[in-house]
């Protein structure tokens, strides 16, 4: 079974219930959501999110799990500005509470950027923050996202993620979110050697540590370190390679989440619409013969 969905919004009167309805309109059986705007710290109270209504819709549709993504403003790797680090720790703690309150067990987090101080210093700061936050009772896994390597991003290779694991006291509360666009842009051969990628990951961290897959094509060639998502089949990775990732037997139980760009509406080219229903349908109907 292909467990596939996309990023969905959460706004208006229906809030989280509206998020579930959006996912269902794409024929999805999982989804990813932010608990509020990813660019700021403004958040509605959990009591305002219509969580019971959302759970009722999920139960009726058979959706058993969904992913929460932490906001972009969290940067645990910042070694320059203490207030930025303190905000990251404080807000990540709140996002863990909100994710658990909404019913998710996975919170995806960009590891952070070392802002010029070097990878070693950045990783040390990330683990300092995680060690302040994570306990044996933390109700949510923090899924460190694989990054493209632009600027001073940390997490563009598995060795850096493994080092974060090694330095985190409660590493059992960590997981990994693999992003196909990011891995491709970081230099991994998603097109021709995804099995090799999984083998390398398994040796360092173990396949069971993969909590979700962000399934995105890339506008750039392998190793570009740019991070610009493309629609499935419209980028440098290609549809067949991404479909093989989606249908990989080792990842069958892992949610795959589309973060591909909105596309021009067929009825009104000036209007952008989500491509997710069509992309999900294409993935579901990908010829099994093509996987052999």
Helix content: 25-40%
Number of strands: 12
With helices defined by DSSP (H or I, 4 residues minimum), what is the helix count? 9
Judged by helices, strands and strand pairing, the structural class is alpha/beta
Identify low-pLDDT runs.
Answer: none
Query: Mean pLDDT across all residues, rounded?
Result: 96
Computed over alpha carbons, the radius of gyration is 18 Å
Order of helices and strands: EHEHEHEHEHEHHEEEHEEEH
Write down the overall geometry. Answer: globular
Strand percentage: 5-15%
Largest sheet composition:
8 strands, parallel, barrel
Task: Name the descriptors.
12 strands, two-stranded antiparallel ribbon, 292 residues, 9 helices, eight-stranded parallel beta barrel
Could you describe the 3D structure shown?
This protein starts with a strand and ends in an 8-residue tail after the last helix. The longest helix has 21 residues, at 82-102. Helix 2 links the parallel strand 2 (30-33) and strand 3. With 292 residues, it is α/β, with parallel strands linked by helices. Helix content is 35%, strand content 15%.
List the helices and strands and how they pair.
Layout: E1 4-7, H1 15-25, E2 30-33, H2 51-61, E3 67-69, H3 82-102, E4 106-109, H4 119-133, E5 141-145, H5 158-167, E6 174-179, H6 180-186, H7 194-204, E7 210-215, E8 217-218, E9 229-230, H8 239-246, E10 256-258, E11 263-264, E12 272-273, H9 276-284
Parallel strand pairs: 1-2, 1-10, 2-3, 3-4, 4-5, 5-6, 6-7, 7-10
Antiparallel strand pairs: 8-9, 11-12
Helix pairs in contact: 1-2, 3-4, 4-5
